[in-house]
Amino acid sequence: MREAELIKEICACGAHRAETVPDGRVVLSADFRGICAANQCGKFDRCWVCPPAIGEIDALMRDIGRFSHAVLFQTVYPIEDSFDIEGMERAVRHHTAVTQRVKRRVQTKSLGEYLLLSCGGCTLCKVCTKPSGQPCRHPDLTVAPMEAYGIDVYCTARRTTLKYTNGTNTVTYFGILLWRE
Ligand code: SF4
Fold first, then answer.
1. Which atom of ligand 1 is nearest to the CA of 127?
2. In total, how many domains does the chain have?
């Protein structure tokens, strides 16, 4: 019942779909730290909620194990083609806005202990303060990426009916809400 209510709320925030992860069991792999370190996204060591600042992956995966419930959600955004960089940037902004709405709604619920994660590094500021060593400007608003916690999004999505990709000329991003009562 609680899951059904949250799924409705998350979709009302603009998510394309949201679904319970059976038994709250997300798929984890420490291999994601190496993938982050390869820095294809350019955020490694340049964002407060990305590695290495976010912490050791083994400890973060143990954190995930403390939660008994999980709802995986996704946004799907249309782009012109696979070269539509501006469209992809709009998709990121859209996903960030949806995630921030979810964050605000969740804060009004009595969920007990919870953790909201998204994908990719934080994009709230045009330029993150991490490289300059200055404190994060919005520590209450940041949402860390699932990969930093070792969550295998592809394999976790396969435990649900959510599709990892949603057709040509679309981009799909994921987020997850974990909690324990
Ligand atoms: S809120 Fe700004 S300073 Fe903080 S992690 Fe995000 S981009 Fe960096």
1. 7
2. 1
